[in-house]
Specification:
Structural class: mainly alpha
Number of strands: 2
Helix content: over 70%
Shape: globular
Oligomer: single chain
Largest sheet: 2 strands, antiparallel
Number of helices: 47
Distance between the termini: 61 Å
Strand order of the largest sheet: 1-2
């Protein structure tokens, strides 16, 4: 708190501002400071308000030891001066007797006699004040349930009584009834009781999040997996990182553990790491730690106790180490509660949770399906099932196999090189004394050459060039000039692809590739004693250099040289029977046809290649060729055929090591085909799979871009919780949190999340996100248009929340950005919507502010007209006139409203065949008819207006647009 309040008005204002903060240390500390400030005024009522705020902060900040102390002060004030408690304060005071009862139950050091004594005092005070005793019996039942003793008579004494104004809310009482049936083993009855809460018809500050956490396992046990999945996503979001709902978080972790989602459980555990140290309630700690142990125990059973896990602050934890610590602490808490309660209830409940077997092998909870392997360090590439490398293969045999496979371009060569790299790196490595294997220098050159190829696949061209050059030097040293020439040519091509510091234009890149081609030709001509496969590789590099040049320049003059090189490659490879290079030449030929704009010729080339590949191989080329065919068909707008080719390519890619068939690209292209075919759910699956593969390959920017598209698609499909869960998972990634990922990409993810939150009716969270994004985007000097968009969206949400001063500030930011990068329609829509909201919420008091925003919108419309801008939706002028009418109507200025609506109708003109224009015209007539007939009480002219419009719309076939007018006309006639 910057400065202490100097007056009671300032104190009340500070209390209101603190009440808007989320529960946690900041709110609690401020509440403590406000109590200190209130004591200085020497007035009891402000102090009462400050103490109530402090007790609430302690209660929902999970500090049960402090809540009863504050309440004792409030009760003393009431006993001394009951008259200063008005009806509302008195109601609040007696409501919070229940808060204290709940707080005392959470503290094992509090004697059982003290808990019962408090309930006795609560009952006596309720009777004295003339309150009904249903809330007292409710607390007596909750104590019995906590003890695990005499619950049935306590439940009946409470549940059969009539509710009173001091009873817990309907949602909380529903949860208690459902839990009673759940403990009795009746899942179906518990779920029936929970229906109003789980459906969202009953809610409060704690509900439905609390009920959802308990209902997850009963839903699974009764076969309602889809509902369990949906509620897990929504319910977890409501309780994550919330100290007062740590027990609920623990139950979500347990749900993950019992549904084959251990990896997600560990991810959520990391997200809630603060709960280990910030939860001050022993009972909440007990619930949370037991849920944590269920998860960790399951991970250990799967043999992954060595995985890292987020735990108590101060050290790094493995799953096994954390489980041991959690077990000791939770066992101790259970023993303390049982000793206080004189039962074994907590030990028994804990044992029951830990003994539960998984309910499902695998339930797909989120769009981002992950396994425990994804949380472990990357393992060496495994070979395919076709030519798996034997782990204990003799070293000479392994070296010769690696080289033989490498000569063919076989994908399993990579697994052989990976094994060799591990063996060579061991301290006791002894190179075979075998002439067929060659020297250690040669093997080291081979390994460098393979490493260079992997770097090139990841577009790490600088590393690729350096590694190839180093390999070439070793080949020279080992007396292998052919291998040296190929490696050096690879280095030349990689160097040509290294981007400039500030990027470079296509001309410079084309020039670099021209020079690279000349260098490779020179290396080829100077090389002596080349093996056929080496010469074929050099020819392929020559053709590739010119193909990349064509891609960079797009010049038709660069087409023929590519085909000339490809002819040389194809002829040579066919003569020597090098099938991989024959196939490669045809693939590059198809790509060259496509780059030159001749897609039919490209398809013909691919279709000529495919039969030979199917019959003679190499089979590992099929996925890429089918992928290329699918992309070409997409270009020809044959999405169905493209889908078939891409699907076959993806199926065949599964037979080969990761990366061979470019499954990432196949999934991405399949997503595009599915979008064209309207198979949006399938497209979403392919997008998320493509992104996850990119992520595993270390292509994080590409992965996050694809995930961004997947999040937007899921939002478009109405899968709001899926969208939010996906984005929450991405935004929690360590490199995102550390600010290492591109800030604009992260901002896009956050923007989509804000829109999803709004779609999910979490307007408060959406507003916070957008306001933060607006502040961030204000620093983007190179992109004022994006700032205008974000600030405009923030302004509207602030308006929806009634914060019109802040909405105006955000709108002004949007206007300033618009001045630099015009967004006429966006800004006009924003200003009109703020005006509507202010008039709707504030009536006549908000009219001046609303008209000021409409005046700004008027200036935007004039600017747009002067610039020759045409709106994509409604005309800015007619939309503005209509909004003037609506704003004046909300403010009760009906004559002005009618004038504005008549102006809008004049601007619109008579409707025609276009449905959108007819709908806009009909709405304008409807509102004018309502203002004139209902509010101005002139039904006759209103009916003339409506009847004429109905006839006009009906004659044009716009019957749906006429229906609201017909209903309004009928209402006016009924009221005459």
């Amino acid at each position: 708190m910057p400065t202490a309040p100097q007056t009671t008005d300032e104190l009340y204002q500070a209390l209101q501002e603190n009440d808007r903060l989320p529960y946690g240390r900041i709110r609690t500390v401020t509440a403590e400071e406000l109590v200190d400030a209130a004591e200085r005024f020497d007035e009891p009522v402000p102090l009462i308000h400050a103490l109530l705020e402090l007790q609430e902060a302690y209660t929902y900040g999970s500090e049960p030891r402090k809540s009863p102390v504050v309440f004792a002060r409030l009760l003393a004030l009431f006993d001394e001066q009951p008259d200063i408690f008005d009806a509302r304060l008195r109601h609040t005071l007696f409501w919070r007797f229940k808060w204290v009862a709940n707080a005392l139950r959470q503290l094992p050091e509090m004697p059982l006699a003290s808990l019962r004594q408090w309930l006795t005092e609560m009952g006596e005070r309720y009777e004295k004040e003339g309150f009904g005793l249903q809330p007292y019996y409710g607390q007596a039942y909750q104590l019995a349930a906590h003890l695990g003793k005499d619950t049935t008579p306590a439940y009946e004494l409470w549940a059969g009584r009539t509710r009173t104004p001091l009873s817990d809310c309907e949602a909380c009482e529903i949860c208690e009834r459902a839990l009673y049936h759940l403990v009795a083993g009746d899942d179906e009855r518990a779920l029936r009781a929970w229906e109003p809460v789980l459906a969202g018809t009953e809610s409060c500050k704690e509900e439905p999040a609390r009920s959802v956490s308990y209902a997850l396992l009963p839903l699974l046990r009764t076969g309602r997996t889809d509902e369990a999945r949906r509620l897990h996503l929504a319910g977890y979001r409501s309780c994550r990182r919330n100290t007062s709902m740590s027990g609920e978080v623990g139950r979500h972790l347990e749900f993950c553990a019992l549904t084959g989602n251990e990896a997600r459980g560990l991810e959520l555990l990391a997200e809630n790491r603060s709960l280990f140290d910030e939860v001050d309630s022993p009972l909440s700690q007990f619930d949370f730690l037991t849920g944590v142990e269920v998860l960790l125990q399951r991970v250990e059973v799967l043999g992954r106790g060595d995985l890292p896990a987020a735990g108590f602050a101060g050290r790094a934890w493995t799953v096994s180490g954390l489980r041991a610590e959690v077990r000791d602490r939770a066992d101790d808490l259970a023993a303390r509660f049982d000793a206080r309660n004189e039962t074994t209830a907590h030990t028994d409940r804990r044992a029951a949770r830990l003994e539960r077997a998984p309910l499902l092998d695998a339930l797909e909870l989120t769009l981002r399906t992950r396994s425990l392997d994804d949380r472990a360090p990357a393992a060496p590439v495994a070979p395919s099932a076709r030519t798996a490398v034997e782990p204990e293969k003799a070293l000479p045999e392994l070296i010769l196999q690696a080289r033989a496979l490498d000569e063919q371009g076989h994908p399993d060569a990579q697994a052989c090189w990976a094994q060799l790299r591990i063996r060579v790196a061991t301290p006791d490595y002894a190179h075979p004394d075998d002439p067929s294997v060659g020297s250690l220098v040669r093997l080291r050159a081979d390994l460098l050459d393979d490493e260079a190829s992997r770097a090139g696949e990841k577009d790490a061209f600088e590393d690729c060039a350096a590694l190839h050059e180093e390999a070439a030097g070793l080949y020279d040293h080992g007396g292998l000039p052919g291998q040296a020439a190929v490696a050096r040519a690879c280095a030349v091509l990689a160097a040509a692809e290294i981007p400039g510091e500030d990027g470079e234009g296509p001309e410079r890149r084309a020039a670099a590739l021209t020079a690279a081609h000349a260098s490779i030709v020179g290396l080829h001509e100077d090389a002596a004693a080349l093996a056929p496969y080496q010469e074929a590789r050099l020819l392929r590099l020559r053709a590739t250099a010119l193909g990349l040049r064509l891609q960079a320049s797009g010049s038709q003059d660069h087409v023929a040289p590519v085909f000339a090189e490809l002819e040389l490659l194809h002829t040579f490879a066919a003569r020597h029977g090098i099938r991989g290079q024959v196939s490669g030449a045809r693939m590059l030929g198809a790509t060259t046809h496509a780059l030159s704009g001749d897609l039919p010729a490209a398809i013909t080339e691919v279709d000529t290649l495919l039969p030979g590949l199917r019959e003679e191989g190499p089979a590992w080329h099929l996925p890429r060729v089918l992928g290329l065919r699918g992309r070409l068909l997409l270009g020809l707008q044959d999405a169905e055929a493209a889908h078939a080719s891409l699907s076959e390519g993806l199926r065949l890619a599964a037979d080969w090591p990761a990366g061979t068939g470019d499954a990432t690209r196949l999934h991405s292209d399949l997503a595009e085909a599915c979008m064209h075919l309207g198979r949006l759910e399938e497209a979403l699956r392919h997008l998320t799979r493509s992104a996850e593969l990119d992520l595993r390959d270390g292509n994080r920017t590409d992965a996050f871009c694809t995930y961004s598209n997947a999040a937007q698609l899921s939002l478009d499909l109405g899968r709001v919780e899926d969208c939010i869960a996906l984005l929450d998972s991405l935004l929690g990634e360590p490199d995102v949190v550390a600010g290492e990922l591109d800030d604009r990409l992260v901002a896009q993810l956050r923007l989509t999340r804000a829109r999803a939150l709004r779609a999910g009716e979490d307007v408060k969270a959406a507003t916070v996100e957008l306001v933060e994004l607006a502040a961030l985007s204000a620093t983007w000097d190179d992109d004022p248009g994006s700032h205008a968009m974000i600030a405009a969206e923030a302004a509207v949400l602030l308006g929806e929340s009634g914060a019109f001063d802040r909405a105006g500030e955000a709108a002004d930011q949007a206007l300033a950005a618009h001045a630099r990068a015009p967004r006429y329609e966006l800004i006009s829509n924003c200003l009109r919507e703020i005006a509507r909201l202010q008039a709707q919420q504030q009536g006549r008091d908000g009219l001046a502010g609303a008209l000021a925003r409409l005046a700004d919108a008027g200036r935007i419309a004039e600017e747009a007209q002067a610039a020759g801008y045409e709106a994509h939706g409604r005309s800015l002028e007619t939309a503005l006139a209509y909004e003037h009418g609506r704003v004046h109507a909300y403010a009760g200025e009906y004559e002005d409203a009618l004038i504005a609506l008549d102006k809008a109708l004049a601007l619109l003109g008579e409707p025609g065949a276009e449905e959108e224009r007819a709908a806009e015209w009909a709405e304008c007539v409807r509102l004018a008819g309502a203002v004139e007939g209902i509010y101005l009480e002139r039904p006759a002219p209103a009916l003339l207006r409506l009847d004429a419009a109905i006839s006009r719309l009906s004659a044009l076939g716009h019957t749906e647009e006429a229906e609201p007018l017909t209903a309004l006309a009928a209402r006016l006639r009924d009221e005459e």
